[in-house]
Design goal:
29% helix; TIM Barrel; 2 domains; alpha/beta; Lyase, Ornithine Decarboxylase, Chain A, domain 1; 8-stranded parallel beta sheet; 372 residues; 9-stranded mixed beta sheet
């Protein structure tokens, strides 16, 4: 079976319109500005560490753009994503998740032999399993206790429960208790900026208060890790926080900008070809939800100011315009900003990096399908 990545290098230096469609593009100038904006807020102004999440990067070279800008490590959701980052030479990796079961824990401790991997726990049984495997492998991974400050997903409750778990983890000889981790995602879609700030800080005060209680028991708490793209400009300034995990916002998709209030520019687009104009107020293109994602906000069409709606089937995009127009014609290309970058990146084999309309480099999405 042919490798879909073979031959993509032929497009370097070509105009983006020369690419076969549908295809995923990122504007390098905009991407770099977004990275520097996040870096300025997190590192430059708040003075805390930046550990960007790579769930929408899925390539170590993309993550390295953030590292080159000052990030000290990366965050991954899955162990297999962490393995991809380690294969690319990235050493400081947080798996912001619980790694459970003999197979995955064996992979975790083996990965610790070639990278400095942190992992989250929210139950002593899981910590003990990792401890036993680490002893057998001759490694000593760092562990963060995950705390639920309102999200209602994984994590131990703040206060006494988190203090007790941290105490138990610290007694284990083959793992190192390094601190606490949380994600204040229940505040993401609060539209009022004053209320959002109040809720984010209230949530993270629970994390900091828990850390202080643990310290009062004589245990060091070096790391308080939190924050995503939808909260980073608030959470980076919360008392006690040491690092922010925001990463997906570098693409500036519709959801991050309009639902979460992230002040970045749209960098990620899908290039599509107009395949039919069955009516003067309707455009059919070759990007359906298999290319553009599903279950996310409507995309933004680039260069078409006429009010419109977008509907996707598997392989078709249907754009209905509020007025009749002759352009674009069949065979022309159109471009749109995806509704949600997390729901689009993993659908594609490659991400084509464009500067001034020309392909500068091509990044294979080698982390796609890494679910284990």
């Amino acid at each position: 079976m042919a490798d879909p990545q073979i031959g993509v290098g032929q497009y370097i230096g070509a105009r983006k319109e020369a690419l076969d469609t549908p295809v995923l593009l990122v504007d390098l100038d905009v991407l770099e500005r977004n990275i520097l904006k996040m870096r300025k807020t997190i590192i430059g102004e708040a003075g805390v560490g930046w550990r960007p999440h790579t769930k929408a990067m899925k390539n170590p070279d993309l993550a390295r753009l953030c590292l080159d800008a000052g990030a000290h490590g990366v965050t991954c959701a899955k162990l297999s994503e962490a393995e991809v980052m380690a294969d690319g030479g990235i050493r400081d990796i947080l798996v912001a998740n619980e790694i459970v079961g003999a197979k995955k824990i064996a992979r975790l401790v083996n990965l610790c032999k070639r990278a400095d991997v942190m992992v989250c726990v929210d139950h002593v049984d899981n910590a003990q399993q990792i401890d036993r495997a680490a002893r057998a492998a001759g490694v000593r991974p760092r562990v963060l206790v995950e705390v639920d400050v309102g999200m209602g997903r994984a994590g131990v409750q703040p206060g006494a429960a988190a203090v007790a778990l941290a105490s138990e983890v610290s007694k284990l000889g083959n793992i190192r208790f390094a601190g606490l981790q949380t994600w204040e995602s229940h505040t993401l879609e609060i539209s009022d900026s004053v209320e959002k700030k109040r809720e984010v800080l209230a949530a993270l005060s629970q994390l900091n208060d828990t850390a202080e209680r643990i310290r009062s028991e004589g245990l060091p708490v070096d790391i308080l890790s939190c924050g995503g793209s939808g909260t980073y400009w608030i959470s980076a300034f919360a008392p006690g926080i040491t690092e922010i995990e925001a990463g997906g916002g570098i693409y500036g998709c519709v959801r991050y900008r309009k639902s979460f209030g992230v002040q970045v520019e749209p960098a990620l687009t899908v290039l599509s070809t107009v395949t039919s104009r069955p009516a003067a107020d309707r455009i059919i293109c070759d990007a359906g939800f298999k290319a553009a994602g599903k279950g996310a906000p409507d995309p933004e069409l680039v260069g078409i100011a006429i009010p419109h709606s977008v509907r996707f089937s598997a392989e078709h995009g249907v754009i209905t315009l509020a007025q009749e127009v002759l352009q674009p014609r069949v065979g022309d290309t159109i471009e749109f900003v995806p509704g949600y970058s997390d729901a689009v990146i993993f659908l594609h084999d490659c991400l084509y990096a464009v500067r001034d309309g020309f392909v500068e480099t091509v990044w294979p999405i080698i982390g796609r399908g890494k679910l284990q």
